[in-house]
Amino acid sequence: MASIIAKPGPVLGIETSCDETGVAVYDRQRGLLAHALYSQVELHAEYGGVVPELASRDHVRKLLPLIRQTLAEAGLAVKDLGGVAYTAGPGLVGALLVGAAAARSLAWGLEIPAIGVHHMEGHLLAPMLEDDPPEPPFVALLVSGGHSMLIEVEAIGRYRLLGDTLDDAAGEAFDKTAKLMGLPYPGGPALASLAETAEPGRFRFSRPMTDRPGLDFSFSGLKTQVLLAWQRSDGSEATRAAVARDFEEAIVETLAIKCRRAMAATGARRLVVAGGVGANRRLRAALAGAGNADAFRTYFPRLEFCTDNGAMIALAGAIRLEAGQHDDPQIKVFPRWDLESLPAVI
Predict the structure, then answer these.
(1) β-sheet bridge partners, residue 87
(2) Where in the chain is the domain with CATH 3.30.420.40?
(3) 144 is in an annotated binding site
(4) Per-residue pLDDT tens for 227-253?
């Protein structure tokens, strides 16, 4: 990786790792200038989950119009850009290639640097889009449909994995549990909404792996407990809501317990919570309250930046481009990518 400095100018960020097309323009001096997001939820709803080939084709259809729209909203032309950042992984290989090809083509044509961004680093840095951003060192809880991990952040690019999921991620458990109870796609938000209508305590589900040391997660057994409880129940709407509420309580309490352990183990005083599940209202309330009691402060991105978005990719890319990092002209993506393998920003 050559050490060059991006020319002055805002960075275009492109996110196409799964089923949302995100574009944003970020400037290190002026902040976020514009962003746009297109969700494919309606496209995949009839299948009950993301169909990779359909996701890739829809990115092809929507990406260039979104780039034009975002640049127009920022009052910029493509010649004003100083760099391009794109999600290079992890994610669906076809979807990643759409964003990578567009980004590399733009960068080549404009003779500006481009950099592939780790999707989870984007989530991890998303709270830095806010007015009062966290400064490293901190601990990050990254919770989404594909990931549930605790990361110690010494500096940007200096990451140590503290705990990971052994099976289902928290968001995946939300979605699968919703589906087995007959809730509409996308299941996680539907389950959380239904849980709001019930009082807790009718069902008692386990808090997985909290009865032993360590910071890893496992939610597949909890999902099985919920399935059995639902199959043995009367199947009423009131029971469906009660199951949803107590399942959500189990997930939230498990995540909160692990976060407190991580903060105690590292001695950190700042906790970042990011990823799609970071938008969950009960999780945000539980961890904000935990900070008051346990002498650490919790930082969240705004709700629109919890789910996949271009703003977090533009920010992460701008930081690395300013540090002189960029990629060679090859179009490369990494469906699996170890966060700890990233170079530090010096």
Answers:
(1) 117
(2) 11-126+306-341, 135-300
(3) yes
(4) 999 999 999 999 999 999 999 999 999
